[in-house]
Amino acid sequence: MHLRAFIIEDHPIIRASLVATLAELANVEVVGCLENETSARVWLQQHPQDWDLGIVDLFLRDGSGLGVIAACQQRSSHQKVVLLSNFAISEVRDRCLQLGADAVFDKSNEIDALLDYCRMLQRAMLIR
What we know:
Blueprint: E1 3-8, H1 12-26, E2 28-34, H2 37-46, E3 53-56, H3 65-71, E4 80-85, H4 90-99, E5 103-106, H5 111-127
Parallel strand pairs: 1-2, 1-3, 3-4, 4-5
């Protein structure tokens, strides 16, 4: 069973690398990728049950990852949203968690932790 991820990341090289890494090392199926807040919010509204994990960058082409995280507050209990950013300082972490993020990962040194998180979610899916 694949974990279905929706990625909101505006940098094309980082996005492509993340998609490949998730597929190869964590058996994650990426069901969509967008690069701005407005498009991501529309996609989430139109596909409320088509994803299991939202991976959101803080700084987007238009808007902010904070707005995307806030738009996910009414998600199903099995759906998780995480921030993946180079700007994962304590104030940003706290704000994301207040808005409903399930976790925050730093792009520069917590990719392995993100992959472990994906594997943990997959194990939980098998139990459900």
